[in-house]
């Protein structure tokens, strides 16, 4: 993500190494609570020394991350659907892959959970630890833990490539799924994109103003009549977060700001195509809507931590000098999106947010009661 700032990764010849990346982790299977091995997986994904590191769309590093996903999921015993796709970028044809698994539930209705695996901002030293290493680590840990559980609904986990340069993987997935009919029994979609790092973990629904999504929906040849801004998935996630973390630790639904009605979000991440296709979405992201950032109260500034600002002014919740500020409290796509940097700024925060997210999604996906109105 997000806000249409798409960086073009280096186009490289894609070579499938087929390697089995095994880094840093031990093979012990001791129970690590509901969060499973998410913390370990995050290191394997986002550490440049012990893991993969930066994973710019359609680069060899993205391929490496894809192979890591494939090895993990097949290792858990899943049949993995690999969905290759190509897309145009600045006159070039680039390629990437989506990875998909599904575990059947008692009722033939499906919840999709998606987490893109590419990263961006490597030119600013970002390793994509939270955007979206954390979302991917959570999704892989969930896949592992769901394997042994009986589920009320089918759970489909989609790991799209090439999100950062135009939602390419998820849009390809939705386009294909509309043709094959595999979205017909889908009752909701959860988008895990940057679920850690920022000051507050939010859950959003799609925007009540269709125009905010029109540009994306047009790419799928969909229009207003297909679109859904239903809040059922957001509300279900909120309820599940209360069940797991209580009122004090629940997800936050952001208050209304100009351009962003309460609890609603824009079309800049992988949930957008699903909302266009009429599916209720819940988008989890860690940021800080209380900051009056470069573009106003838009959730693009993620933290008040002074290190991430040239100068942050508490009483205005903004930059001391809006004209000269260069950082704006951003973690995503910057040199702060690295595990060691995040640990220095916020000791323990990312792991806690990661583990909470895994526990909350596990609660939602293993209990029938949270989805109030299945269409
Ligand atoms: Zn992202």
From TrEMBL:
It comes from Photobacterium aquae. PANTHER family: METALLOPEPTIDASE M28 FAMILY MEMBER, PEPTIDASE M28 DOMAIN-CONTAINING PROTEIN. One of its GO terms (biological process) is proteolysis. This is Peptidase M28. InterPro entries: M28_fam, Peptidase_M28. Residues 99-351 form the Peptidase M28 domain. GO terms for molecular function: metalloexopeptidase activity. It comes from the Bacteria.
């Amino acid at each position: 993500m997000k806000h249409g700032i798409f960086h073009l990764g280096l186009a490289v010849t894609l070579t499938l190494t087929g390697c089995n990346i095994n880094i840093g982790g031990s093979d012990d299977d001791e129970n690590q609570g509901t969060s499973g091995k998410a913390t370990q997986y995050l290191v394997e994904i986002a550490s440049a020394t012990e893991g993969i590191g930066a994973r710019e769309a359609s680069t060899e590093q993205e391929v490496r991350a894809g192979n890591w996903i494939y090895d993990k999921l097949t290792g858990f015993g899943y049949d993995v659907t690999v969905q290759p796709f190509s897309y145009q970028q600045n006159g070039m044809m680039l390629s990437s892959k989506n990875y998909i698994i599904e575990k059947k539930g008692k009722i033939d209705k499906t919840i999709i959970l998606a987490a893109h695996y590419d990263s961006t901002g490597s030119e600013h030293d970002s390793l994509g630890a939270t955007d979206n290493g954390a979302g991917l680590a959570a999704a892989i840990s969930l896949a592992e833990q769901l394997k042994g559980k009986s589920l009320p609904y089918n759970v489909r986990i989609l790991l799209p490539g090439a999100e950062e340069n135009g939602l390419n993987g998820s849009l390809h997935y939705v386009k294909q799924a509309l043709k094959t009919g595999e979205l017909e029994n889908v009752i909701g979609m959860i988008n895990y994109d940057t679920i850690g790092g920022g000051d507050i973990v939010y859950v959003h629904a799609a925007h009540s103003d269709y125009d905010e999504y029109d540009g994306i929906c047009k790419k799928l040849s969909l229009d207003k009549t297909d679109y859904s801004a239903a809040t059922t998935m957001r509300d279900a996630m909120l309820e599940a977060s209360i069940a797991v973390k209580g009122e004090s630790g629940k997800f936050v639904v952001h208050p209304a700001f100009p351009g962003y009605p309460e609890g609603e979000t824009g079309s800049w991440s992988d949930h957008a195509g699903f909302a266009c296709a009429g599916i209720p979405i819940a988008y989890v992201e860690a940021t800080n809507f209380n900051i009056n950032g470069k573009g106003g109260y838009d959730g693009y500034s993620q933290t008040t931590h002074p290190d991430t600002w040239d100068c942050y002014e508490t009483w205005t919740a903004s930059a001391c000098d809006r004209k000269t500020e260069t950082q704006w409290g951003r973690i995503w796509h910057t040199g702060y999106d690295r595990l060691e940097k995040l640990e220095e700024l916020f000791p323990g925060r990312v792991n806690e947010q990661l583990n909470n997210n895994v526990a909350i999604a596990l609660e939602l996906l293993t209990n029938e009661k949270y989805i109030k109105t299945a269409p």
